[in-house]
TrEMBL record:
<dbReference type="Pfam" id="PF02625">
    <property type="entry name" value="XdhC_CoxI"/>
</dbReference>
<dbReference type="Pfam" id="PF13478">
    <property type="entry name" value="XdhC_C"/>
</dbReference>
<dbReference type="InterPro" id="IPR027051">
    <property type="entry name" value="XdhC_Rossmann_dom"/>
</dbReference>
<feature type="domain" description="XdhC- CoxI">
    <location>
        <begin position="15"/>
        <end position="87"/>
    </location>
</feature>
<feature type="domain" description="XdhC Rossmann">
    <location>
        <begin position="169"/>
        <end position="311"/>
    </location>
</feature>
<protein>
    <submittedName>
        <fullName>Xanthine dehydrogenase accessory factor</fullName>
    </submittedName>
</protein>
<dbReference type="InterPro" id="IPR052698">
    <property type="entry name" value="MoCofactor_Util/Proc"/>
</dbReference>
<dbReference type="InterPro" id="IPR003777">
    <property type="entry name" value="XdhC_CoxI"/>
</dbReference>
Length: 343
């Protein structure tokens, strides 16, 4: 499944290739509370069809009305991007459903050949991070290597935005837990790859939108070379499969590396990786084990939710002292039980 940015770019490219006038809308800046962050995208065609969003919904209605009043074709014929601001006054913020004090500044860009959306899409699909510079006077676009999570910048003459590969999840082990985890990851726009060389595990495992690999996990990790938009989660409980994949993942740029197991098994895993494979304490500190946030999970679906919540938190730069990682939560629960029973 595509992430939202990719879907917006692909749909806008398809509309334009079919000869339809298209306007690409980008959230350039926000002040105060805002439903959508800078860099969020939406595309509108001449029929009023949209993909993506720039707010909770109310701005979109007014935006579509404004563009239709002027005519999408007329907007596109001008060839010049337009800057539009919502929420300047308290009355306007209330009218458009913006939080108190919220202001959103949008750039409306007529899509043309010089928009270079097709090239941008190709770069994203090749897992390249790109800075896109839009000239507000001409509509011309420059593409250059850039930081995936760079902060958009708008000045009097240019809009700088940053796009790149969608988040990717590599799951080691095919089973019930990996199925729930994959379904959740797909729903959040992750590219998902499940790896398991065991034929008996893969015989009945299939999920639309998920790539299933029969390689040895360490071979897969070495081949894919996880980047800073990739998470790796080991779910087999088999050291022959999990450990070798974790060794390579911990030495990659992956933003998250985790493995399931009890606290005791997790400590034994760290000891093996340190003593037998020479991983440093610094590398092992990046290993999330047991993987997940503590939510008292019992079922495979609940465990998957716990793991996915931690993956997303790390991806979004959230500190993990609150909410509680699984190991700390279980330790606190054990202490609480022992205290209550006098043990």
């Amino acid at each position: 499944m595509e992430d939202l940015d990719t879907r917006v770019l692909r749909t806008a490219t398809e509309w334009h290739a079919a000869g339809e006038p298209v306007v690409l809308v980008t959230v350039a800046r926000t002040w105060g509370s805002s439903p959508r962050p800078p860099g969020s995208l939406m595309a509108i065609n001449a029929r009023g069809e949209t993909v993506g969003s720039v707010s909770g919904g109310c701005i979109e209605d007014d935006l579509i009305h404004r563009i239709h009043e002027g005519g999408v074709a007329a907007v596109c014929a001008s060839g010049t991007p337009t800057v539009l601001r919502y929420g300047i006054s308290a009355d306007e913020a209330h009218r458009f459903g913006l939080p108190c004090g919220g202001t959103v500044e949008l750039v409306l860009e007529p899509v043309a050949a010089h928009s270079r959306l097709h090239e941008l899409l190709q770069a994203c699909q090749q897992r390249q991070s790109t800075e896109r510079v839009l000239d507000l006077n001409s509509g011309e676009v420059t593409l250059r290597p850039g930081q995936r999570d760079g902060v958009p910048r708008l000045d009097d003459t240019q809009l700088h935005t940053f796009l790149g590969p969608q988040a990717r999840l590599i799951v080691i082990g095919a089973g019930d837990l990996s199925r729930y985890l994959s379904e959740m990851a797909l729903s959040m726009g992750f590219e998902v790859i499940v790896c398991d060389p065991r034929s008996e595990q893969c015989a009945t495992w299939a999920l639309p939108g998920v790539q299933l690999s029969h390689e040895m996990p360490d071979d897969l990790v070495l081949r894919l070379k996880p980047d800073a938009r990739t998470a790796v989660v080991a779910l087999t409980h088999d050291p022959k499969l999990d450990d070798l994949a974790l060794i390579d993942a911990l030495q990659s740029q992956a933003f998250y590396v985790g493995a399931i197991g009890s606290r005791r098994n997790s400590e034994q895993r760290r000891a093996r990786l340190r003593e037998h494979f020479g991983l440093s304490d610094e590398a092992l500190q990046a290993l999330h084990g047991p993987a997940g946030l503590y939510i008292g999970s019992k079922t495979p679906a609940e465990i998957a939710l716990s793991i996915m919540a931690e993956v997303v938190a790390v991806k979004n730069g959230v500190r993990l002292d609150k909410p509680t990682p699984v190991a700390k939560g279980k330790a606190a629960m054990a202490d609480s039980t022992a205290h209550a029973t006098g043990r």
